[in-house]
Specification:
membrane, MFS_dom, Major facilitator superfamily (MFS) profile domain-containing protein, Growth Hormone, Chain: A
C-alpha cells in the first residue's frame, strides 16, 4: 500500500517471485480441487448419505400425496359423494398450493436458512397431514391438503440449493443431483403404493396418518444430517419478511386458483361452458398471470422470479419442455390410467397399485443411468430420448382397446413414461441450477418446481374439461354405468398428452442447446462464481464493520 505523497519503491526479486507464484497458484486453483471427494460440510459418508436420502423427500412430498389420492379417488368419492372435476381437487389442492407459493417459500428459505426451512416444512407437513386425516368435510380436507402443500413448498428450493451449493461440478455432483431429481417421479410411484395398500387394508384416511409418521421422522433426520448454513436472529427474520414479494405471491396464487377452479367446475354445472362465471373467472385468472409477469419485471426490488433467469434461452426452453412434459405425465396419463384401471376394469386399489409397480423399478434404473452419464452424454440427446418416451406412452394409451393385454399396452407405456420423466427432469434440474449463481439457486429451483407443479394442476383442469366435453356422463353419478363412453372420453386426455409431448419434442430438437454437465469447464465456472461470492461477502462485511465503527464513534462523541 502506497501512501499519498510517497514514492512507490521497485519490487525486490523475492517479492516479484512471490507475486508470480501467487498468480500461478491462483490461475491453477481449479487443478487442486477434487470435486469427487466428500464435501467438507459432511463429517462422514453416512451423514452425506442420510442427508441426500432425506432431501429426496422434499420434491417427493407433493407428488407422493397427489398420487396416493389418485389411487384413493373411488374411496374419497364414495365418502364425500363428489365426482368429476370437483373430485380432482382432492388431488390438485396440494400441488396447486405447492406450486403457487414455491417462489415465495424459496425466498423465505434463503432468508431463514435452508436447513431451518426444510425442518420446519417437514414438521408442518406432518402436522397438517394429521389434521387432514380427521376431516369429515370435503372442502375442509382440500384446505388441509393445500396447507400441507404450501408448507412443504419451502423444502423443495431449499433442498435443491443444499445439493447445488454443497458439491462442485463433477461426477459426484451429478450423482447427488440424480438422487435429488429422483424424488418427484419415485415419490409419485411411492404414493401409488401407499395409497393402494392403505385403501385396501385400512381406509383412505390411513394415507394421512402414514405421512404424519413418515415426515415426523424425516424432520428429525433432516435436523441431524443437513449441514448448518445460517443462524437465525430476530434482525435477520425481520429483514427477510420485509424483503419478501407479497404482491407477486398474491397474483400467482389468485391467478392459478381461478384458472384451475373454472376448468374443473365445467362439468359440475348444468350449462357447462355457457355458465357466465366460469368464463369470467377463466379470463380474470389469465389476466392475473399476465399481470404477474409485468409486476415481477417492473415493481419489486426482490422479485420472486429473478429477471436474469428469463434472459437465459436454455432455461426458458427447458422450463417450457418440463411444463409440457408434466402436463402429459401427471396431468393426463397417470391420472386417467388410474381411472381406467379402477372405473373401467374395476380393479381394486391394491391391484391398481400392482399395475404401477414397474414405474419405481424403471425409475431407479434410469436415475442411476443419468447420474453416471450426464458428464458424458449431451443433455440435448437425453431430453430428446425422454420426449420420445413421453410421445410413445401417449400413443399407446390413445390407441389401446378397453381390454388390451397389460404387458403390450400399459406396461410398455409406463416404462416409456419413466424414461421420459427421469431423463428430462435430471437434465432440466442441472440447467436450472447452472443458469444462476449459487446464492440465488434457491429461487431458481423454486421457479423450476413451481412451473411443473402448476403445469400439472392446470393440465388436470384442461383434461377434465375436454373429457366431459366428449362424455356427457363424466362427472355424474351415471358415469360408471356407461363404461364404453367413459373410456372413449378418457382418450381425449391421452390425445392431449400426445399434443403436449409433440410440442416438447420439437422444442428439444430445434431449440434446446445443452451439452454435458459436470465437466472441467463447469468446475472452473463454479470456482469463479465462488470467488466472486467470497469477494462480495468480504466487501459486505467490511462495509458493515465500517458502519459499526462510525456508530461507535458517534456514540462516544
Amino acid at each position: 500500500m502506497v501512501l499519498s505523497g510517497e514514492t512507490e519503491l521497485p519490487l525486490q526479486k523475492d517479492e516479484k517471485d512471490a507475486l508470480e507464484l501467487q498468480g500461478l497458484v491462483e490461475a491453477q486453483r481449479h487443478l487442486m480441487i477434487d470435486p469427487e471427494k466428500r464435501p467438507a460440510q459432511f463429517k462422514t459418508f453416512f451423514q452425506e448419505l442420510l442427508c441426500l436420502g432425506t432431501l429426496v423427500f422434499a420434491p417427493a412430498a407433493a407428488s407422493m400425496s397427489q398420487t396416493a389420492y389418485q389411487i384413493s379417488l373411488n374411496k374419497v368419492s364414495e365418502e364425500f359423494n363428489v365426482t368429476g372435476g370437483l373430485l380432482t381437487w382432492a388431488v390438485t389442492s396440494i400441488s396447486l398450493a405447492n406450486g403457487s407459493v414455491l417462489l415465495f417459500m424459496g425466498g423465505l428459505a434463503d432468508g431463514i436458512g435452508r436447513k431451518n426451512a426444510i425442518v420446519i416444512s417437514f414438521i408442518a407437513y406432518a402436522l397438517f397431514s394429521l389434521i387432514g386425516g380427521f376431516m369429515h368435510n370435503f372442502v375442509a380436507l382440500c384446505i388441509m391438503r393445500a396447507i400441507q402443500g404450501m408448507f412443504v413448498a419451502g423444502a423443495v428450493p431449499a433442498g435443491a440449493a443444499v445439493v447445488g451449493t454443497s458439491y462442485m461440478a463433477g461426477k459426484r455432483k451429478n450423482k447427488a443431483m440424480a438422487c435429488f431429481a429422483a424424488g418427484a417421479p419415485i415419490g409419485a410411484v411411492l404414493g401409488f403404493v401407499v395409497g393402494g395398500v392403505c385403501c385396501q387394508v385400512l381406509s383412505w384416511r390411513a394415507v394421512q396418518f402414514f405421512y404424519t409418521i413418515l415426515f415426523g421422522l424425516l424432520s428429525i433426520t433432516a435436523y441431524f444430517s443437513i449441514p448448518n448454513d445460517k443462524v437465525i436472529t430476530m434482525k435477520a427474520i425481520k429483514e427477510t419478511f420485509k424483503d419478501l414479494d407479497y404482491g407477486g405471491t398474491l397474483l400467482s396464487v389468485a391467478g392459478f386458483v381461478l384458472i384451475c377452479f373454472s376448468l374443473t367446475q365445467v362439468d359440475a354445472t348444468k350449462k357447462e361452458w355457457k355458465t357466465p362465471y366460469i368464463i369470467a373467472l377463466l379470463i380474470v385468472g389469465f389476466f392475473l398471470i399476465v399481470g404477474l409477469g409485468f409486476y415481477e419485471y417492473y415493481v419489486p426490488k426482490n422479485p420472486l422470479m429473478p429477471p436474469r433467469l428469463w434472459k437465459n434461452g436454455n432455461f426458458v426452453c427447458v422450463i417450457s419442455i418440463m411444463c409440457f412434459s408434466w402436463m402429459s405425465f401427471n396431468g393426463s396419463i397417470t391420472f386417467y390410467a388410474i381411472l381406467y384401471f379402477e372405473e373401467v376394469l374395476k380393479y381394486s386399489p391394491l391391484h391398481t397399485t400392482a399395475c404401477f409397480l414397474p414405474l419405481p423399478v424403471a425409475g431407479i434404473m434410469v436415475n442411476i443411468f443419468a447420474g453416471l452419464t450426464l458428464h458424458k452424454i449431451p443433455g440435448k440427446f437425453l431430453v430428446i430420448v425422454g420426449q420420445i418416451g413421453f410421445l410413445i406412452a401417449g400413443i399407446l394409451w390413445a390407441t389401446q382397446s378397453i381390454h388390451r393385454l397389460y404387458w403390450s399396452g400399459p406396461f410398455l407405456s409406463f416404462i416409456c413414461l419413466v424414461i421420459g420423466a427421469d431423463l428430462t427432469y435430471n437434465v432440466a434440474n442441472q440447467v436450472t441450477l447452472s443458469a444462476i449463481p449459487k446464492h440465488m439457486q434457491g429461487k431458481a429451483a423454486g421457479v423450476f418446481n413451481m412451473s411443473i407443479q402448476l403445469a400439472a394442476s392446470v393440465a388436470l383442469g384442461i383434461t377434465s374439461a375436454i373429457v366431459s366435453a366428449r362424455n356427457p356422463y363424466y362427472g355424474t353419478s351415471e358415469e360408471t354405468k356407461h363404461i364404453p363412453e367413459l373410456f372413449d372420453g378418457f382418450k381425449n386426455a391421452y390425445y392431449f398428452a400426445i399434443g403436449c409431448s409433440s410440442i416438447s419434442l420439437l422444442l428439444a430438437v430445434f431449440v434446446l442447446k445443452v451439452g454435458t454437465t459436470g465437466n472441467a469447464k463447469d468446475l472452473e465456472r463454479e470456482i469463479e462464481e465462488n470467488r466472486e461470492l467470497e469477494d462480495r461477502d468480504t466487501t459486505r462485511e467490511e462495509v458493515i464493520q465500517e458502519e459499526s465503527n462510525i456508530g461507535k464513534k458517534e456514540e462516544t462523541l
